Amino acid sequence: MPSDPYAAGLAMLARCELSTAEVVERLRRRGFAPGDVEAAVERLRDEHALDDHRTATVHARRSARIRRRGPLRAEREIAALGISPAVAGAAVAEVYAEEGAQTVLERALARRLAEGAPVESRAQFARLYRYLVRQGFDPPAVSATLRARAATHAPPDPDETAS
Q1: Which of 60, 97, 130, 147 is most buried, by the most CB atoms less than 10 A from its CB?
Q2: Which residues lie below 8 Å from residue 74, measured CB to CB, with a gap of 6+?
Q3: pTM exceeding the 0.85 threshold for the entire prediction
Q4: Which domains does the chain have, with CATH numbers?
């Protein structure tokens, strides 16, 4: 273990992207004096080794591309890392604009419903709706997506075929 908080912080950041709050907490847990921790964090920020916006963007990309979570959940998870809500919101907005929130929603839906498969019942609709909202997608967008999936594959109405 490095005896210098700066070196310890740099070693932490070499392994993974961390927020300022996470670095401060980890350095304090290692027993470094609060004044030394603050000086080390300031130096890491000055050298751009520590950047909360970059950390938020990395986490937002992981949420969208790998975990297939919605922007609301991604923003909550990033804020839980100790990153300010404004920075978290900006990073999430940037990433989900690049990825396309609807595209991420479709990918998340594909985990539970095969591509092209219809939503066949109200119970299935409700189950998928709850799942997607828990994943952090906007409820109106979830409803619209599921309705479109149900409408495009609905069986013909018997009254319409009798005419």
Answers
A1: 60
A2: 59, 60, 63, 64, 92, 95, 96, 136
A3: no
A4: 5-50 (1.10.10), 53-151 (no CATH)
